[in-house]
Amino acid sequence: MTASHQSSPDEQVRADTLVLLGLAAEFEFEAFVRLANDAAAAPSIAERQVIARSAGRALERQEHLIARIAELGGDAATMMAPFDGVILDFEQRTTAATWSERLLKAFIGYAVADDFLRLLAQGADERTGELVTGLLGDDAYTELVVSQLAQVVADDVSASRLALWGRRLVGDALAVIQGVIVRQPAIARLLAAQSGEAGEDRVQRVFASLTAEHTRRMERLGLTA
Amino acid sequence: MTASHQSSPDEQVRADTLVLLGLAAEFEFEAFVRLANDAAAAPSIAERQVIARSAGRALERQEHLIARIAELGGDAATMMAPFDGVILDFEQRTTAATWSERLLKAFIGYAVADDFLRLLAQGADERTGELVTGLLGDDAYTELVVSQLAQVVADDVSASRLALWGRRLVGDALAVIQGVIVRQPAIARLLAAQSGEAGEDRVQRVFASLTAEHTRRMERLGLTA
């Protein structure tokens, strides 16, 4: 079911959905670039290959999102432009000192972004919502991160340093998301669409939900959130 | 026709072919990373998308080459390792000052590398030779570079600067290739395989051939080689 171009509420959903697709497409593009560089920096060719394939999948996801923008009558470049540098913002807030920190940073950043996109997808038209939700996640990448960090986490001192790093990262990720919500009324509307709550309450609930997902993820890695 | 693992001459071809595949796979991986970064640096989202897709195709080519390494009983990581940094070497010799210079650098670098791989493919087993030759080339990327540089080349001063830059680049590319030939006896054998010429004569002919191709390419761009 695509939104009708005629009636006003549907037109609003279509316009907001295009903003979501622009954010998601820009996010996947920047993830692609970051992952390509992570691949180049990987300590072994085996890890490099796993991460390079994740980069390739991010690019494929971007293509699907761009195709959906076109289906809805939008222009991909126009919709992506407002979000240019969205991951760069996250990247520049903190600098990873080790490969483990870099791996955790990318993993947490993409996971929080995916969770956020899933929440936004609930406010989009049904077909776009299903497309976005279906695209997200990367099991091979998650397995790599979990297995690589398991070795580091086995050491108590490294584990507590990484746990601290994880707390800083989630703070940075949430700050980037807050910036996106504040600057883009369409994003705030998409978040409010399902609940009918007032904007601020909804944003609080979104942050609580993203933080809870983060805690579960850190536990899976054997780290204290 | 794959090389038999039994007879000695075929075993040599198989071993040398694996070295070629390692070089080609490493080259495609590094091209993928460089192109991803070029995409991120592109002046418009439209150009960015074209270059990002070229990066995606480089990764796909690498997957085909890796699959062929496995078919021949080789290990991809082992075969790629000796060529780690092959493009980085080219990158670090000269620094592009403008987007046009960066575009020309990548274009010339990949084109010379493709030409070199085509020559090497003649010494490989028939099936690998066809695979490598069939994979090379990227029309969409070439079109982008030709159309983007056409605007710059229209200006005489810019054109003569770019032509000078092109001459430096081809010198750098040939120096990198010379290094690969010197360090890897298998590469020298693959070059000699078809002609039966002495190694040095063959290398001279290879350089003459690569330079001739470069001249044709520069002319296509409207630049003096």
Give the tally of β-strands of chain A: 0
Query: How is the biggest beta sheet of chain A arranged?
Result: none
Order of helices and strands of chain A: HHHHHHHHHH
Low-confidence stretches of chain A: 1-6
Number of helices of chain A: 10
**Globular, elongated, flat, extended or rod-shaped: what is the shape of chain A?**
globular
Q: What class do helices, strands and sheet pairing of chain A give?
A: mainly alpha
The percent range for strand residues of chain A is under 5%
Instruction: Specify the oligomeric state.
Output: homodimer
Mean pLDDT of chain A: 91
Helix content of chain A: over 70%
Measured between the Cα atoms of the first and last residue of chain A, the distance is 40 Å
Return Rg of chain A in Å: 18 Å
Largest interface: A-B, 26 and 26 residues
What does this molecule look like?
Two copies of one chain form a homodimer. Chain A has 225 residues and is mainly alpha-helical. In chain A, 80% of the residues lie in helices and 0% in strands. Chain A is built from ten helices and no strands. Chain A has helices at residues 8-41, 45-71, 76-80, 86-93, 99-121, 126-135, 139-153, 156-183, 185-193, 199-220. The longest helix of chain A is centred in the N-terminal third of the chain and has 34 residues, at 8-41. The termini of chain A are far apart. The model of chain A is unreliable at 1-6 (pLDDT under 50). The interface between A and B is medium-sized, with 26 and 26 residues.
